[in-house]
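Example pasted here:
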Amino acid sequence: MVKYIYKIVTLMIIFMGALFFFGSRLQSDSFQTGEVVEAGTETFPYLSVKSQGIEMNRLYGYSGVLDANIVRESITPITGDKSISIIFGGADTRIVKMDYEVVDKDTLEVYEKKGINTITKETKQVDIVFEYGFKTSTEYILSITAITDTGRKIHYYTRLKYYMENSNLKEKLAFAMQFHENSFVKAKAEELSRYLEPDGTAANDTLAKVTIKSDSDLVTWGKISPKKVSEPIPIVKEYNMETACFQLNYFVEGTTASGKETYRVNEFYRVRYVSGTSYLLNYERTMEAVFDAGLTSVQKNQLKIGITNDTNMDLLNNDATKQLFFAREGNLYCYDMDKKKNSITKLYSSYSENASYEYRENANPQMRLLKTDEEGNLFFAVAGYIPRGQYEGKVAIVLYQYAPKDKQILELVYLPIDTTEQQLNKDFNNYGYVSEKNVYYFAVANTVYAYNMESHRLTKLAENVTNSSFQIIRGITKKQAGKTVEYDCFAWSDVQDKGYGDDITIFNLETEEKTILKPETEDSYIRLLGVINDNLIYGYVKKADIVSQVLDEELAPCYKIVISDEKGTAVKTYQQKNVYVSDIQVAGNVMTLSRVKKKAKNSYGKISDDSILNQTETQTSSYQLQSRVTSAAQTEWYIGFPTSFVIDAVPSYQVAQEQILTSARAVHLDEIQVPQYYVYALGKITEAYEKPVPAIQKADEQMGVVISRTHHVVWERSGSFLMNSIAGIEMQKSGGDISGLAACVSMVLKANHIAIDASVLSKKKSAVYPMLAKYMEEPVNLTGASLEQVLYFVSNNKYVIAMTGSSTAVVISGYDTKNVTVYNPDTGKVETYKRSQAEKIFQENGNSFFSYLN
């Protein structure tokens, strides 16, 4: 008995000692504030995953826990032995413990949770054998938490996809890697051309973006003869039995007419492997020149940017201090044009000066130049993943000021956001403004904010805004007291989800004055339409003219269009008898009006477009990007200067002290509520839309995936089975007090365990989408998608309601290569249509489809 007591006491001492050891050494994310700190170096190790003998998927660490289903940076295919290895790389920071979880990507239920404690200083990799019984071809989340010898927790994420059978990972990847290696050998150009699809539409005059439609000479790098200075580890972006998508990130050096240059390269492959043969379905390579002050063109009076896709980069000049600010690849530069100085200084960098290429490839945040004043102060914002310093591993927006008097970077506000850099890139709208009153205006994911740098107060100006309900009037220039003043304005409708209502507010960002525009009459609304140059476009809509359409959207035609200044004073109007404007498009100084005429009380027919030329002149800066074409490097870009300025010699180059005066101001933004649909293609988020169908169409075009803001997979190219049938729906017949639309909605709701009687739905006389939205968390309006596209939902066991008339519909419950199966409430029967017959019926009724995500 005494022996057991001793054992218990010994175990308790060990347990308490362990708690004390780790508890005393665990670090929280507490930051130094109000002090000058070094920008620091990269301290988080990066990990890579080895599966089936192949090293892949370099993972970078997060300092905080993210919702595991947010991160879609890589997929790790695993096979029957369910084993992988985690390889340590990068910083010398020692990992002493590692925990991992296998998580359901939809419900976030944890299926397996284990820890690895035997990690020594010499350990370079750890092996994991999963015990969970994975479902074939199903994605899971692997969440890894590494604990360092100082007790800090670092979080890493990848996806797992299990195949009991051989999914031919090695063959798919071998094809992509061989194509990659062959592209560096000019003699292989003809061999590579067999896989390309040149169609004559590609310009073939730039190396900045090379695709499967480019010619083989560009694919083999033209004449720059590059040499790799870093070796890529393949990142698996998408994966299934037949196809796989791989991304390669690396740096090369190449020779141009200016000399030797360094480039960041991102390469994407979509490969199909069938019956022992590989096919290239898609290919894209982008490259960005690393800025080098020594390549300045004195003869042409230009700073060389080089090969780039960023042809609209910010250039912010300060006439008072004779400085030009610009940003490239995560770095902020200042060109001091004073003849006595003629120097270029790197003021800020997202990565440390001696960072390895492996860290540099993951350090490319958005950088926005906002304002510079007569003292040479520069306000700028950085948004993205922070790879070093006190916020290392965070995703955030940080507002900075460069103060030349103190030669110091001041942090003004830190806005952490629990998301990935890619999603933030789309949510952080391409706009920022700092007023003379030191108010920073910005927008994130459909919410417009104002942060007062003096009172340290964050205010929401508008929430849940959409493209139709919010506009920015930029670059308004006025003469005041003999001085030219430039400012911006916001404009928004009081009804955010529609874009028309009882008023439009115009908010002057400098004076903070509001101008309220009202409808012409009590029986009309005012509708926000857009901006042309520095003028606002709005229209007047009669309430009686608004009609609901089959698409579950309203048509609000304007009987009168107004172009006004920021005070609401009309500059130009457009009005024609019995003609209505349904929408407008602006290109430069020209506004195109989509017009309709009434056919009946609740019906309109489209007529020819009309256009308006706006005569307002726009001022162009003397500092602009200019292109040059050479035989060596094709199209390259340069910063051009006013004709009065001459570069006498190549500017000197220096790096500013990497110190930041930190702020005590961390502001957390509210959770985002507005729906958003992200297109994942070509290894990244390529687009974001407010509605699902444009996202599906773009993903179809780009062979990608659509993800909702709630991180559900909405749609996936090549993600459908050849056939599927959903069981478990109970027929609901229409007739009497039950409408056909209500019967369809009732069937779908009951199949999802939502018991709503069809007669109750019928009484409300609502359209399909509002009925679904009342009872389901994430219904989706798929109107405008093709039948082939919506069958993805049926393939994933989700019913689809399809309109067959103005007030009739069916529920699609199954399909194969030739037929579509539907529940028809009007006949009370299960019916089978030929695919061609179904396509015709649905097309004739506007391809109006409705489904759900949850």
Q: What stands out?
A: Residues 1-32 have pLDDT under 50 and may be disordered.
